[in-house]
Structure formats: C-alpha cells, structure tokens
Amino acid sequence: MTNHLHIVCLDAPSPPDYGGAIDMFYKIKALAQTGKKIILHYFNYNASRSAKGLEEDCEAVYAYKRKSFFNALPLSQPFIVQSRISKDLIARLNKDKHPILLEGLHCSGIVPFLNNPKRVVLRMHNDEAAYYHHLAKTEKNLLKRRYFLQESRLLKTYQKTLDKQISLACLSETDMETFKTAYGFQKTTFIPCFLPWQKLSIKEGKGDYCLYHGNLLVSENEEAALWLMQEVFSKIDVPLVIAGKNISKKLLKAATNYKNIELVNKPTINEIESLVQAAHINVLPSMNNTGVKLKLLNALLNGRHCITNYNGVKGSRIKEGISVEEEPEQWAEQINRLMQRSFTAQDVAARKTVLSLYNNMQNAEKLNALW
C-alpha cells in the first residue's frame, strides 16, 4: 500500500488550542513520524488559524473555504456537514487512490462523491447528535438553542444514513458503542486522542488553589464553572481559579459574590500549563458524556490531584489516578480532604497507565492498520 495519506481536517489544525485541534495537530505529527507522506486539506474560516508548525510533516497543504450558513441553504444535511462539501476538495481527492482520513463527521459529506469510499477512515470526535442536543439544553440564547436542536435532529438522521461499511476511528468507547448499537456501524475501533503531553510533568508536593479551565464561550463549560462556584466552592474556604477564553459578564458578575474565586481571562497555552501544574487540585466536572475531555487528560498528565464526575471519564478507559464524585457535597468533602494531602511519587506513578494508553506513536500505528 502507498505511504501517501490524505487528511481532511474540519478546521485549520493550528494552533492546537482546543480539543479537536489538539487531536488533529498531534495526529498529523505522529503519522508523519510513522513514514506517512501526508497531503493535508483543511477548511479555512478563521483568520487566526492555519497549518503553521506542520509544514515539515506534510508533502502538500491545501485550504478550502467553508460555506456560510446562508450559502449552505437549504439544509438537507446538518450545517456542519453541508458547509464542508467542496467540489475542489472532491476533485483533488479523486485524482489518485491514496487512503483518506476524514477528521470529524463534519467532513463526511464528500464520501458519496469519492471514486472509492473504501479509501476512507472517519475519525469520530463525538456522537455529534448527542453533543448538539446537550448544547441546546445548556444554551440560554433562544436562536442558538433552536439552531442546536435543529442540527441535532439533522445529525441523528444523517448518522443513520452514512455508509455502514466505513471504518470509524472513535476516541471514546462510549461513542463507539453508540455508533454500533444505535446507528449500525460494523467497523469501529477505539483510537485514543493524540496529545502534546507524552511524558508525565507532575510536581510533587502541594499547591494552594483549585483550578477549572476551558473555553468559556462553550455554554457547557460556563455551566460547569458556575456549578463549581455556586454549588461547591460557596460552601468551602478553598481558593478556586477559573481560567479560559471568553469569560462572560454573567460569569464575572457571579464571581463577585465569592471571595475565594479568581478569574483568569484569555490565558495563553503556556499560562494554562503553568496553572495546571501549580494547582493542588484540578476540578473538572463534565456536563456531557460524549467524546473525551482533553482538559482532563492535560490535568492527569501535568497536574496534581484531579476530581471529575462519571461523565468526565466515561468511555476513556481511565480508571486510576483520579477521584470521581457526583454530588456537590461529595465534591466539597473530597476537596477538603485532598487539600490536606501532598501529591506523592506514588500518586505520580498511578498516572503511568494514562500515559501508556495515550501514547501517540502506538496509536498512530493502530490507525495505520485500519487501511
């Protein structure tokens, strides 16, 4: 089989500053290290994003415009799919017979137009129908909520109509089971996220604060931050730092009610890494159980104690080196307990299983085996 590989990204993969981009960026690097000659294609709809840092890993790089919402109308498919059906992309892919990795359900609308759909492996970042349904539940803006609900309905129908012979590379065992049982896909493989963290960088000892971090423009992340403030840290005398992009007026106002809450807006990647390492506890409740939470993996490979809920670890195969709590009272009790306990060499050793599972080169070889 040829060593050439087309990779089609739903977004420009650089900078790797959010979950999907992190997975795509470091997957490209790992696949290149296995000897793949990568032809990279991506949809360019954000001036601040590009393929910077991947030039040496790719034989060629092509960018395509994503259709606007109005140019994609009428919607017979989900907008995230229909807006990424590009004639130029299809024509370029059909010039050869090289295998194709489609990053996200978003890119799968081109499959019926390919000269051989068996060339395709589809990387599933989420059960998108469930993800958009959850976004609708947490969104306060009426127009956005209606859009998320409509998109969720279209996605559910669309996922049922996809060719069931396509190989799916799933990053969550939970989603993998859903695609098998609810949608009838026959070829599903668990391929964990690709990460920038390939060694443990954890400081032993103690910190003096807890940390929640995430993109706070995402409604479920803001919901998690508010839940921590109002349901957990309002009841204990422990400092909480909330760091992330796009802190809203609502979050700013809520934080003024608590003396132990500090907000850090628009931290750089390096600042986030420093905050994760210095915190005594990374507190990361998840409001949905689709996909895998990269901020949780960051905390486990670089931070001291970590607390999440069942949603946070579901489908990830992570079973050691983390506390899993559900009710606010349980969170408060565990935080108070862990604040008194140093993070030891034994605690660090418990995280080695996570490092082994999320090994980029090992998972790149697993992915190569799907063609």
From TrEMBL:
It comes from the Bacteria. Coiled coil: none annotated. It holds the Pfam family Glyco_trans_1_4. GO terms for biological process: lipopolysaccharide biosynthetic process. The keyword Lipid biosynthesis does not apply. GO terms for molecular function: glycosyltransferase activity. The keyword Transferase applies. Keywords: Transferase. This is Glycosyltransferase family 4 protein.
